[in-house]
Structures are given as structure tokens and as C-alpha cells.
Amino acid sequence: MQADPVDYMARAQWLRAVVLGANDGLVSVASLMVGVGAVGQSSKAMLVSGLAGLVAGACSMAIGEFVSVYAQYDIEVAERERRRRDCGSEKEGVKEEEEEEEGSLPNPLLAAAASALAFSLGAVLPLLAGAFIRSGEVRVGVVCAVSSLGLAGFGAAGAVLGGANVPNSVLRLLIGGWLAMLVTYGVLRVSGLVFGMHVSSG
């Protein structure tokens, strides 16, 4: 007996939120830590900045997802109310359809929690990578390397679950992440030279 084909479209909404959330967390925190490392800050300053980025980013993701999904929820509820008025709620077919659709409404709180958790999981990778390394230059290199592996993993996982092309997905995430870290490093490096923001990397 042939198995039912995978409904990739049904996965699209939650898959997009999870992959984008984890990717955003990894790239944001890694770029922040690399940027701080560009001006030779101490390991403590680098880790604190990364932790601050994790907390702020997770809160931002949760609030943004909550507002977005709640707007979608309101639109769907309003649309069902219009259909109910047009068709008449006394009709049996309409009642059955309403019962089936009731469970399919988006859940803003669940979406917010999932986005915050995904962001945090992605952000943990660069934080752990730089937590136990004292040398500033080595720490920046390790954060970049671990973040690249994480990006490749997220890209591959998203492609496999979504039925997309794995190499293309991995390459897109890697290029985007590398650009973000490079730009952040360059801007902070130049700012450090201009404003004299250099501190011992111990």
C-alpha cells in the first residue's frame, strides 16, 4: 500500500517560523558578538552582549509573531462571520463547516512562544561557542565557524522538511549569515578605529 504523499504546504507556516526564528537568532547574536570582538572587547563583554541580543531578539520575535498572527486570527474570524451571515447559520452544512474550521484558527500565543524558542535555540550556538575561549581573535573565529555549521544545519533541515533543494537552501543561509557577520565586523572595526573603542581582549 502506497503511503500518502507528504503535504509540504501544510508544513510551510510552522516550518517557516521555526527556520527563520532559529536563523535570525544565530545570525543576530553571532554578528553582535563578532562585532564586539572586532574592537577587541573582553570575553565577558562579548558574552554579555550576546546574551542581551538573545533576550532582546527573542522578545522582539515573540511580540512581532503575536501581533502578526493575531491580525490573521481577526481576519479569519471576521471572514467566517460574514459567511455565516450570508449563508445562514441554521443550515446544517454551514454548521458542520464551522465546527471543522474552528480548530484551524491560528493560535497567537503558540506562534509567539514558538518564535521566541526558535530564536533562542539559534542564538545559543554562538554564545556557547565563545563562552570558554579567552583569546579574542580565536573566539571570533570559533563563533564564525560554529555559526556557519549551524546555518548549514538549519538550511539542510528546512530543505528536507519542506521538500526543497538542500544545496540551494544551505548556500542561501550561509551567504546571508556571512554577509551579516562581515558587515557587522567591518562597521564595528572602522568605528573602533575612528572613535578609539579598543579594549584589551583578555
From TrEMBL:
Assign the protein's first listed, main location to one coarse class.
membrane
InterPro entries, A to Z: Ccc1_fam (IPR008217)
> For this protein, what reaction is catalysed?
Fe(2+)(in) = Fe(2+)(out)
The answer on whether this UniProt entry bears the keyword Transferase reads no
Q: Where in the cell is it found?
A: Vacuole membrane
Record's compositionally biased regions (Basic and acidic residues) = 82-94
Gene Ontology annotations of biological process type = intracellular manganese ion homeostasis
Q: Which GO MF terms are attached to this record? A: iron ion sequestering activity; iron ion transmembrane transporter activity; manganese ion transmembrane transporter activity
What is the membrane topology noted in the UniProt record heading this document?
Multi-pass membrane protein
Q: Flavoprotein as a keyword?
A: no
Q: What are the alphabetically sorted keywords of the record?
A: Ion transport, Iron, Iron transport, Membrane, Transmembrane, Transmembrane helix, Transport, Vacuole
- Segments traversing the membrane: 14-39, 51-73, 109-133, 140-164, 170-188
Q: Briefly state the protein's biological role.
A: Vacuolar Fe(2+) uptake transporter.
What protein does this entry describe?
A: Vacuolar iron transporter
This protein's species is Musa acuminata subsp. malaccensis (Wild banana)
